[in-house]
Specification:
The structure is a homodimer. By secondary structure, the first copy, chain A, is an alpha+beta fold. Chain A has helices at residues 2-15, 21-37, 61-83, 88-100, 145-155, 163-172, 186-205, 213-217, 276-282, 284-295, 299-314; strands at 44-52, 121-127, 132-139, 160-162, 223-228, 234-240, 250-251, 261-263, 268-274, 318-324, 329-333, 337-344, 349-354. In chain A, helix 3 runs antiparallel to helix 4 (88-100) and helix 10 packs across helix 11.
Chain lengths: 358, 358
Amino acid sequence: MKKLAFLIAFVGFFSCKEQPKETVETSIREVQKEEVKKPEETFGIAIHGGAGTILKKNMTPEKETAYKAKLEEAIKVGHAILKNGGTSMDAVQKTINVLEDSPLFNAGKGAVFTSKGTNEMDASIMDGNSLNAGAVAGVTTVKNPINLAREVMVNSPHVMLSGKGAEQFAKERDLELVNPSYFFTEDRMKSLERVKEVEKAKEANKTVAFYDSVIKDAKFGTVGCVALDIRGNLAAGTSTGGMTNKKWNRIGDSPIIGAGTYANNATCAVSSTGWGEYFIRGMVAYDISALVEYKGLSLKDATKEVIQKKLTKLGGTGGVVAIDSKGNVSMDFNTAGMYRATMNADGELTVGIYKDEE
Amino acid sequence: MKKLAFLIAFVGFFSCKEQPKETVETSIREVQKEEVKKPEETFGIAIHGGAGTILKKNMTPEKETAYKAKLEEAIKVGHAILKNGGTSMDAVQKTINVLEDSPLFNAGKGAVFTSKGTNEMDASIMDGNSLNAGAVAGVTTVKNPINLAREVMVNSPHVMLSGKGAEQFAKERDLELVNPSYFFTEDRMKSLERVKEVEKAKEANKTVAFYDSVIKDAKFGTVGCVALDIRGNLAAGTSTGGMTNKKWNRIGDSPIIGAGTYANNATCAVSSTGWGEYFIRGMVAYDISALVEYKGLSLKDATKEVIQKKLTKLGGTGGVVAIDSKGNVSMDFNTAGMYRATMNADGELTVGIYKDEE
């Protein structure tokens, strides 16, 4: 009996892990060879850089150009990986790295500030092939939180690590650490000051609302990516600084598998952005997958049902990017805008910000 | 436009909160009055105290009696609340408090030790009526983590808090705090020592498996409760010390809404216990609800599908207790045993430990 239990634990341990790198690379090469014989295989990628009250009238042409250029740069990194027969997991991770390294988005370098003036980042990644996943919450010194999320998935027996422990693990795994001052940006500090002013005024007036429009929008800008590779493997990842002025080591939806991130080869890959509390309560990413699996909805109908009906009814705002195993992409949001881009196997690129754009 | 955004944020804020206490109490009284006219209204409650390799041959009669007595004591607290017209949220919380205060279960007083010899507790609670939820991860000084989870739900704009921040919030909300030494129990310390010995032996042998049967079972004992009140409101809650020897501030499934805990009046209330990593990847609690909602499965068939098929296929072990809006209870597990009890509106009590028991 003990031997059996050990065997089960042992098998469970391996089923919980990604394959060793060598094996994965070998299989990539094998599939690449196979790929030549199967030109019908498709691939695709979609990204978001946050949803919110993004209105054309509040944008400068320079800012718009900067956002679009960075979205294009990021998605092309992932697209190149997929085109060369790389994995969807690599495409998701490397694409998110570009967005994390830019001060434009609320993730990595551009992470928003907590109430204490620190930066606490969350991220998660999921492999639709193995249904394995990794997530981190509240890290302050990890340059690319999405890399740590993947490291948790591949090289720990856990799915989710947090705070100091997650950073200790990052150190043990030799991930790139930076001084917390790396995450300081003038723009995000100004946002914090603005939010604190509003909060102070509210407290003086003894009104109870914690959020107003300033605060509400101060939590958007999360980045995410979903991808399908030529082997039919789906992957999804999400990375964020959370919400400006967040308190008490709040954890949002981004590091929650099923809320912020979900991928399953049988259905779809989803990355969320928006008011995290509602995305957790609505299990948004997994709910889209469940509607595809259990009700047979198309990806488009499933994302519409969850974002435009269920999330909206709950009172939540935000959006998702999603891709299914046929390469169909759906990007849905109930806010004025969502930074987003898609690229398909033919190299067709779309980049959008506002609601009315294709 | 700004005014509109403010209004949306304001409405969103309230939709995110429980009603003020006075209102809830008034409505309880109102419904109680109504209740006299509706004797057909039913209610019910079910609890678990963890699933694992619980075998009769390894149990002493004294230990068995102690477990059964505590399960009975706990469920009767919740049952009395429901019988007197109280809310399912109160029943869930107060029942879990009894289990948290006992050293027998891996929650509160009996929480297992982390690798560092500390106790880090996780808990979550969800209200099936409002779909509101609260959760905490990695708290070390809060006597009853489930109380803090409910406090997060009711008195913060967030769903999930963690670590020091969650404790700061507990202090601000005047929750009962204890010295971390309160959570010291001889039994759990012995478990940690045993697990560390196994780990050391493994490292010396350079085998890669992190888990063996000792370690595997050292993480069970999570407690949970689901309840239906006479108003048809469902609630679910889960509280745990996590797994013995856990590292890097690991977060398991217990504080993850949709994995460890889920409640929705339209479907069911679910509390999970088991190998948390698999419950996160499988979105176990929400998946049961999704099967009921989208595929029209009965609660019994939905729990069976998720635990015996999907979770087992993934390699995960554990179980759930669940109740639907008609008071149907389902308790399913793929381990040798699960500490559990149920009580219905007629006061019929069942208490079980092993697989073959009713």
